[in-house]
Write a structure and sequence with these properties.
Blueprint (H helix, E strand, L loop, with lengths): L1 H4 L3 E4 L2 E7 L2 H11 L3 H9 E6 L2 E6 L2 H31 L1 H4 L11 H23 L1
Antiparallel strand pairs: 1-2, 3-4
Length: 133
């Protein structure tokens, strides 16, 4: 996602309505990270494909539009990754999915009994104090 932000576009000297990458090394680095051929990645980020009825048109993007498109793509990847991460953490910590009643001990430990007794005692003392006033 961060590598997408490193891409900069400049107007294509051959076509003022199109754009090219300012640094081909950044494109190569990104294509290697994503496992996509650099030609395919370049086309995906600099050309908009429009399909109308049975016809398909390829419209070149200006440098500004290509940058906006790339930023939107990075934002979408980040959003999908974040959503996946949150769902994975929630699934891992969900009691309904991870609770196995057969592994729970039937007797309570001394700590649980002591804590419960202390809470009851402090509640009783508080109630007595309130009544005394």
């Amino acid at each position: 996602v961060l590598q997408l932000g490193n891409l900069d576009f400049i107007p294509d000297p051959k076509n003022a309505d199109a754009s090219i990458f300012e640094d081909d090394a950044e494109l190569e680095s990104l294509s290697e990270l994503m496992g996509i051929a650099s030609d395919a990645l370049q086309a995906a980020l600099t050309i908009r494909t429009v399909q109308a009825r049975s016809e398909t048109f390829q419209v070149p993007l200006t440098a500004d539009k290509a940058k906006e498109s790339t930023d939107a793509f990075a934002k979408e990847i980040y959003a999908k990754t974040f959503l996946w991460l949150v769902r994975t953490i929630n699934d891992a910590t969900c009691a309904e999915k991870n609770y196995d009643p057969s592994k729970v001990k039937s007797s309570t430990s001394n700590t649980d009994t002591t804590t419960t007794t202390a809470k009851v005692a402090s509640s009783s003392s508080l109630a007595d104090t309130i009544r005394a006033r």
